[in-house]
Design brief:
This protein has 91 residues and is mainly alpha-helical. The longest helix has 48 residues, at 43-90. The protein contains two helices and no strands.
Length: 91
């Protein structure tokens, strides 16, 4: 019984699989447009990114709160102006 091995073909097949994995990974990055698609890409970068996202959400919430406060003050100012006008007419 004769067993033949084609070491060159096996090596070429292995290299092709490795290259295909690299191409798939790069295509995923290109398709998403983001540098980090999963934690395995850059764990520390992902941690920094998530911390920044949390800070952005906090700042957006603070901005909404400030806008709500401004609206409240403007409404109250209108109410006080109307009250002042009524008091002037009563004099």
């Amino acid at each position: 019984m004769v067993i033949n091995h084609n070491i060159s073909a096996m090596f070429a097949h292995r290299q092709l699989q490795i290259n295909n994995r690299h191409v798939d990974k790069n295509m995923e990055k290109l398709a998403s447009g983001e540098r980090i698609n999963r934690a395995g890409d850059d764990a520390s970068g992902l941690a920094v990114s998530e911390k920044m996202r949390a800070q952005i959400r906090g700042l957006q919430s603070a901005e909404r709160n400030a806008e709500d406060g401004i609206s409240f003050i403007q409404t109250t100012e209108g109410y006080l102006q109307e009250t002042q006008d009524i008091l002037h007419r009563l004099r």
